[in-house]
Amino acid sequence: MWTVEGPGRADCYGALPTTTLRMVLRMLTGSYNPRHVNHFNPFEKMFVGHVVGCTFSLGSMAVAGLAAYQYSVVYGLTTLAVHYVVPLLLFGTYIVVVTFLHHCDVDTPWYSDERWDFVRGQLSSVDRHYGIIHHVIHCIGTHQMHHMFTRIPHYHLEEATEHFRRAFPHLVRRCDDPILPAFVRMFQKFEQQSTIDDDAKEHVFK
């Protein structure tokens, strides 16, 4: 058995502010069961062929951290928190929620290595509408076509999705629930159903 680990709380709204911090901690410690990958180590096997890019990314983060430190020295920790840390946590939380909802919904399968192929994998994502910010975030909620054809400019995602839905209605995965209630619903299912048998070929949340 292995477990897809979540933030560990059924109180979804309360967990939101801590979710980003826990994600960063997991990336740092590599505590992904059953695979352990430290996302801050450019020499991990996962990053073979991308060492230069990963190293440049880490260097950029170090420069940003130094700039934040210097800002705190000049203006104080409170000002740094208000102008940088809190907005960063809010943005990180938004990224976690949106990414989670892109790939989790009832009856949306997660495949084992032997069952997975490119088309199955890419179409196991979910189209959602993010209300008044849907176009502000470049229609990324129309996610199936973003996965299938990664080079489509985001401003053409809606058009591509229309054609896809007409041609392949049986392959469409779409959820029109409001975003935060959808997140709460799926977060609770994730907490309850995220233990998966080692020999499972396919996993879906019910």
Can you summarize this structure?
With 206 residues, this protein is mainly α. It has helices at 12-29, 51-75, 77-103, 118-123, 143-148, 157-167, 179-193, and strands at 2-3, 110-111, 195-196, 202-203.
Task: Describe the overall structure.
The chain is mainly alpha-helical. It folds into two domains: 96 residues, no CATH class; 69 residues, no CATH class. It has seven helices and four strands. α1 packs across α3 and α2 runs antiparallel to α3. About 5% of the residues have low confidence.
Secondary-structure map:
Layout: E1 2-3, H1 12-29, H2 51-75, H3 77-103, E2 110-111, H4 118-123, H5 143-148, H6 157-167, H7 179-193, E3 195-196, E4 202-203
Antiparallel strand pairs: 1-3, 2-4
Helix pairs in contact: 1-3, 2-3
